[in-house]
Specification:
Shape: elongated
Distance between the termini: 38 Å
Structural class: mainly beta
Largest sheet: 11 strands, mixed
Number of strands: 11
Oligomer: single chain
Low-confidence stretches: 78-88
Strand content: over 45%
Length: 154
């Protein structure tokens, strides 16, 4: 589904049954609904540059390894921080002016199912309805979340 927002000067794309793959065709993100607002100015210059991204109902996993390292990924397939996933969070955090990611100012994760696997504490938690908003500002990234964590029964 495609629409134009004259007020925000964005082209908005809504994808149903969305899957994002990395260069090796591994699933980085899968969600029933993905909504992307693209910069019209960038499109006029031949560049695809998202301004905002909203992901509805993804299944996410955060794992803390035995040595304390955190890994992030889709549920069932955690990715280490050193692996290339196609999502460079450092670039989002820093803005990377002159790059397409530099246009991205807002990421919404809505009604996600989150599994936290803490191998250091030998515990697993689940949060069935998590909302996260990341908003990049000139002073850094602000994050807002609401979730209720319960002990996972796996």
């Amino acid at each position: 589904i495609l629409d134009w927002s004259q007020e925000s000067r964005t082209v908005n794309v809504k994808l149903l049954g969305a899957r994002v793959l990395d260069a090796d065709q591994a699933v980085v993100l899968q969600a029933p609904e993905l909504y992307v607002s693209l910069s019209a100015d960038a499109l006029l210059h031949g560049e695809i540059a998202p301004r905002s991204l909203s992901v509805s109902q993804p299944s996410l996993k955060v794992t803390r390894s035995e040595n304390g390292d955190f890994v992030f990924g889709v549920e069932g397939e955690a990715l280490s921080a050193s692996e290339t996933t196609g999502w460079n969070f450092d670039e989002f955090m820093n803005g990377q002016a002159g790059r397409a990611i530099g246009y991205l100012t807002r990421v919404n994760i809505l009604h996600a199912h989150l599994v936290i696997d803490d191998r250091l504490l030998n515990a697993k938690w689940s949060a069935p309805d998590v909302n996260i908003t990341l908003l990049r500002t000139p002073s850094g990234v602000n994050a807002v979340t609401d979730l209720e964590i319960g002990r996972a029964h796996v």
